[in-house]
Specification:
By secondary structure, the protein is mainly beta. Helices cover 0% and strands 55% of the residues. A hairpin with a 5-residue loop joins β5 and β6.
Length: 336
């Protein structure tokens, strides 16, 4: 299987574009994709036909048709938004674009038309708290969660109505770590009712029991992402991913500049196994759709490192490429 790989470079006005052959990990650089503005987070629909980009320098969302053969993008349209968003995602129906706004302390929902265009105004513009860092729905598409880093130090819990796109506060509306961990991004275990948040300020990962009927969380473990002896004051965490088997979880350290590998026990608890050197200020990394390869980009280095993921979950570096300035997102789209 071959994939287009798009790297969003927040200090440039283009996406870096590569082709990844997942059978052997070979990566070929392609022509950059010009956007005319500095990009932030990306999201694609399930079919890989459309891409949605936050143009953070312009405070806009743009939607594009993807030529899945060549990887070229054709702009469908743009809409103005009140602030630059650090995170966008689609619900499971691909009918709604959800976004969080770090500075504005809000979240929004935009409708996606049949032609890929976004509603000019958000269906909802909901105040939460400052430093709203990400937003995603759960696997059932009935709930949504919004982690907030410090000082809010909370995860907001919502009910989500996929028939209307409406978010309503769940009960309780928030959960707050006992200490100022600063939850940032999250993943669900692929088979268990467990939710993991990576915590920017505490340099930790928190494991939560997830109630799939109520859509609520309860924390049962907080574990450091750092090796013994490294001062957490010199580090912040950024991204979190879990493999399809649910046996290996990864988190990125900015400061220690590493990828932490955790083993996942039968009860969903974590144990820290190893660290792998990576790019300077690794704001984002991701596993390719086959789960065989990992790509990590450095906001401070302007480069991307490629790793082979061993059966054990260990990482072996295989390649490295320059991208644009301050990369912060990776998106895979299957070549058809």
């Amino acid at each position: 299987m071959t994939y287009h790989v798009y790297i969003s470079n927040s200090g440039s006005t283009f996406l870096s574009h590569f082709l990844l052959d997942s059978s052997n990990g070979q990566i070929e650089p392609q022509d950059d994709v010009s956007l005319g503005a500095a990009p932030g987070p990306l999201a694609t629909d399930a079919a890989g036909r459309r891409m949605f980009v936050c143009l953070r320098s312009e405070k806009q969302f743009a939607s594009y048709d993807i030529d899945s053969a060549t990887g070229a993008l054709r702009q469908i349209g743009v809409v103005d938004v009140p602030d630059g968003a650090p995170y966008v995602s689609l619900d499971d129906t691909d009918q709604y674009l959800l976004a969080s706004y770090y500075g504005a302390g809000h979240i929004s929902v935009h409708a996606i038309g049949a032609d890929g265009s976004l509603s000019a105004e958000p269906l909802q513009w909901i105040e939460t708290a400052t430093h709203a860092h990400s937003i995603q729905t759960d696997p059932s598409n009935r709930f949504a969660f919004v982690p907030h880093t410090n000082p809010a130090n909370a995860i907001y819990q919502f009910r989500f109505d996929a028939s209307t796109g409406a978010l309503t506060a769940n009960d309780p509306a928030t959960i707050e770590p006992a200490t100022p961990e600063g939850p940032r991004h999250f993943v669900f275990h692929p088979e268990k009712d467990v939710f993991y948040s990576v915590n920017e300020n505490g340099s930790t990962v928190s494991a939560h029991h997830f109630d799939p009927e109520k859509g609520t969380l309860s924390s049962f473990q907080v574990i450091s992402t750092l090796p013994a002896g490294f001062d957490a004051e010199d580090n912040t965490c950024a991204e979190i991913k879990i493999d399809a088997s649910g046996r290996h979880l990864y988190a990125s350290n900015r400061g220690h500049d590493s990828l932490a590998l955790f083993d996942v026990a039968e009860d969903g608890s974590l144990s820290l196994r190893d660290h792998y050197a990576t790019e300077q200020t690794p704001r984002f990394f991701d596993l390719d759709p086959t789960g065989k390869w990992m790509l990590s980009v450095g906001q401070g280095s302007g480069s991307m490192t490629v790793y082979r993921i061993e059966e054990s979950g260990a990482l072996t570096q295989t390649n490295r490429f320059d991208v644009g300035d301050a990369p912060l997102w990776i998106q895979f789209v299957e070549v058809r």
